[in-house]
Design a protein that fits this description.
Elements: E1 3-14, E2 17-28, E3 32-36, H1 43-51, E4 56-62, E5 65-66, H2 72-77, E6 80-83, H3 95-101, H4 104-108, H5 114-124, H6 126-130, H7 141-153, E7 159-163, H8 171-186, E8 190-195, H9 198-204, E9 207-212, E10 215-221, H10 222-225, H11 229-236, H12 238-242
Parallel strand pairs: 3-8, 3-9, 6-7, 7-8
Antiparallel strand pairs: 1-2, 1-4, 4-5, 9-10
Helix pairs in contact: 3-7
Amino acid sequence: MSTLLKVDNLHAGYGRAEVLHGLNLKADKGSVVTVIGPNGAGKSTLLNALMGVLPSKGDITYDSKPITQRTLEDRVMQGMALVPETRALFGSMPVEDNLLLGAYRQVRLGKKDSNAAMEEVFTRFPRLKERRKQLAGTLSGGERQMLAVGRALMSKPQLLMLDEPSLGLAPLIVREIFKTIADLRATGVTILLVEQNARAALEVADYGYVLEMGEIALEGPAADLAKDPRVIDTYLGAARKKT
């Protein structure tokens, strides 16, 4: 399996406060890679640095090309998409207009299949079709998360980065979101998933990293991390250890 994203010695932060201290990470094409860890570990900083929202030092290689010096817009055009923790929707705009904004990359590439892409999103998230004329700000938390993911999918990304997609959602909706992640992997999309819900993340992922204090504390196949005593004690709870 070829590598889509490779990160070497990544440093990033806010002003003089460095949050990430020399991270090494990679994601193979068509895989789900998860980064788990406690609040303040640097998970969101990692995604923002990869997307170009934050400046960084080190080497980021995407699809065999160095992109460390590329702008956020360049990275979008190369097929990277980020669904931020805040979801960043336009609350005063209807669902379908929010989705159309996600088609920016496809329009720039000269592809005029926005309607077809929107129908694909509606097939994946039928509730969005029911609410296509509804203002995004009036949606439930789960519907807003679906819209945020759907908007990212409108760009037909090669790499989809998800920042805490289960945050604040009811368990039933969380299961639905993670099922969507598994379904997307089957289409060939590479997914980098940042999550505090370690149990759900490791169940859906192929490979995992444990980020603590801005450094990788553990890494390995997700199934192995789920059995690691350190991960069980810290992130999965004692109940998992007895099973």
